[in-house]
Specification:
mainly alpha; 3 strands; about 70% helix
């Protein structure tokens, strides 16, 4: 009766293999049947174990792939940041070289002495093209307010197409600019090394972006002022730019494009 009882218990628990073995033990010659059943049970266990091992291997493979993907993404981000930094450094070096060549010994290409350029003063206001005629001595940059990229993005929008080289150059030269410490330009200006996407965004509110740029510079410019009086001069110059509305900028851009050399 023990085999029958055991078979019933195993069947109730859902273990049909053990139930079958218990029932088989009740049959004459059931030892052989039971032995065969146990072998079958062992084989089933091996299959189950192999399946579990296969699933574990798949999970390990997926985990490894996820780890490798995370590493690749991190490397891509680091490479992108390094590229941005390198670009900024190269641009700063290029600007320094331009200044140095323009003022090298006060001589022209033929080696003859030429009249030296006047020097920029911190906070000096003017059209970019006019300020370009003066030297910053490696200390000052001429900062477009708002950025020249935003101005040209707005001009292209007004035109409904790409600007000609003459139009782009005319906007660069005629735009408002203020002389600021070179390092402040690099470290503080929200538009230094500006992306096309950010320029397009600023183009939708030129007056607002100009105000943002001025406010950010006023917060920090004192830290870069070696001679004193820079913040006050910058503030005075910036007021002339901040008087302009978005409508004023649109009218100005239309006029500049109209008069640009074809």
């Amino acid at each position: 009766m023990t085999g029958a009882v055991d078979a019933g218990i195993y069947a109730a628990e859902g273990d049909m293999v053990e139930a079958g073995l218990s029932a088989a033990s009740m049959i004459p010659g059931g030892k052989v049947v039971t032995t065969a059943g146990k072998l079958a049970k062992g084989a089933a266990g091996l299959v189950k174990g192999a399946h579990a091992a296969e699933e574990a291997a798949k999970a390990a493979k997926l985990a490894k792939e996820a780890e490798e993907a995370a590493k690749a993404a991190k490397l891509a981000r680091e490479a992108e940041e390094a590229a941005k930094l390198k670009k900024a450094e190269e641009e700063a070096a290029r600007l320094r070289k331009v200044e140095e060549e323009a003022n090298a010994g006060g001589k022209g290409r033929d080696g003859k002495k030429v009249k030296g350029k006047k020097k920029l003063k911190c906070g000096e206001y003017g059209k970019y093209g006019d300020l370009k005629k003066k030297t910053g001595d490696g200390k000052f940059d001429r900062d477009h307010i708002p950025s020249k990229a935003a101005l040209k993005a707005k001009a292209a929008e007004l035109k409904g197409g790409r600007l000609t080289k003459a139009e782009a150059d005319a906007i660069d030269k005629a735009a408002d600019a203020v002389a600021i410490p070179r390092q402040a330009h690099i470290d503080v200006s929200p538009t230094y090394g500006q992306t096309a996407a950010d320029a397009a965004k600023d183009a939708q509110d030129l007056a607002g972006s100009a105000r943002r740029d001025v406010e950010e510079m006023l917060k920090k410019i004192d830290e870069y002022d070696a001679d004193g009086g820079c913040k006050k001069a910058y503030q005075k110059a910036a007021r002339r730019v901040l008087r302009k509305s978005n409508e004023d900028f649109v009218k100005w851009l239309a006029e500049v494009m109209k008069n640009a050399k074809k």
